[in-house]
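Hi D.,

Good news: the full-assembly prediction came through. Inputs first.
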Amino acid sequence: MDLKDIKAIIDLMKKNSITEFELEEKESKLRLKRGLSASASAIQSEDAIQMIPMPIAAPISAPTAQLAVSSSSAASNAGEIDIKSPMIGTFYRSPSPESAPYVDVGTEVNSETVACIIEAMKVMNEIKAEVKGVVTQVLVENGKPVEFGQPLFKIRPL
Amino acid sequence: MFEKVLIANRGEIAVRIIRACKELNIRTVAVYSEVDANSMHVQMADEAICIGKAPSSESYLRIDRIISAAEITDVDAIHPGYGFLSENAHFAEVCESCNIRFIGPSPRAMNALEDKAVSRALAKKAGVETPPGSEGTVENEKDALVVAKKIGYPVMIKAVAGGGGRGMRIAHNDISLVKGYHTARAEAEKAFGNSGVYIEKFIENPHHIEIQILGDNKGKIIHLGERDCSVQRRNQKLIEESPSPLLEQKFRKLRDKIGKAAIRIAEAARYTNAGTVEFIVDDHGNFYFLEVNKRIQVEHPVTEEVTGIDLVRAQLEVAMGEPLRYSQSDIVLKGHAIECRINAEDPFNDFRPSPGRIEMYYQPGGRDVRVDTHAYAGYTVPPTYDSMIGKLIVKGKDRRDAIDRMNRALNEFLITGTKTTISFQQAIMQDPNFRRGVYSTNFVEQLLGGARRELIEEKT
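Then the structure:
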């Protein structure tokens, strides 16, 4: 089990709204649990994922990657700011389904950088970052509806 | 059948509409501004979408945002409530072009009654008397003076796009007319985006009598009797009742006549869904058409209580294409109902708005007592919107019974943390003229001006 597989499982969980996943293998047991915020109204934007790797039998080769517990979602790191949605509509990460996303974690943006598209009433609206910094988190899944004021990205300002 | 409806409003009327939807198993979507995040309508609805910052111009009046919210939640229809976009024909047209049913009159009916001056003309054509006044808008000071001379003072200068009792001024002579004319136009431009004004004779001791109408999409229109809304302060209604004590005591035959006149006007406009036709009645039983309110009104519960008909449910049914299930002969007014509006205002400080956090809240109960509100203990009344926080409606077997019940209910109503008009409403219930049913629209002014102040102060 390596990080790539775990990431794939996490993606599958998010996509299918699964909250708990447990996998037992010869040398390890993996349990993934999603924490969902209780708000009835806000579209789900962040998940807390806790990974608890549990070796069952002492393996001959110990797992090389010590999987760190994923950071919790709620607390924002000091200095990070949110890019909030200025409108209501559907959030898209790329200009078209075939293209690459406008930004990703690690992308440097400035005030004129287009960060995403929000589609409302058949009109594609380019949403600019309006700040200078680095994207640290993408908070909304591609194709999901967003409301006014909803955080879309976390940026570490430069 | 609607699966899902979006309520493009807030406060007590949004709660009212959500309730009607739930009773019909229709799912509900609330929209809210940032400052309304903890509001009752947001909590009651199945889904809620934030549509902007506190100012109405950035939220509840934003057609684009409301339609976007309707699209991402995939609703079948929008109920606009009252105020905000409820009488905006453009909004109704946008809804229809986006395949979303607008729960209210058709855009065509709204355009036929698009402003007060146009409606006056329509009423005249339908053979209904209007107060003597100008033909259409008055374009300059000279014309204003000519009209005033013809109809005689006192006169009212009214904004054609005004509503909710706003945009009206009285003039008693040429000097105040000229001054009032220019001020009214400037105010109208600022408040309604339309500086058009017209002039009407001011009827002394007027009684405000309005007729509730309901029409289906097949052209059938009925009326559900009158509401007397003469107890007002600065043209804002405080108390509404049905039946009207004036009609009951003095002009019994007028109900049928005014009701038929209301239907004639509605038919001329090809009106559909719920609406209210407003009239002025003078002390001699003459009645004059004022305007049509093309929406469900604040005081609709009064009619619901005396007719037994759920008006918001009827609106949903009409919008879903169902024919009216009632005929005119089914409409009978039984008993007497009174509504007192409860505002977060300080009656001892010129009714200054009193926003803030409600600490303790206990609403009256018991037989034939109804409270339509969005307030609750811990709710913070925001300063951004109108000050009405609820309506207390009681029913009685006759007017005297209803007044006594209202007095009892007001006495139980406990709201602390903000100032409210509960004590003031009680003073009215105990006023001998009100109890006799002898009052017109200058009633509150006289009450406040007279020696009744101690009576009001005692109640707090």
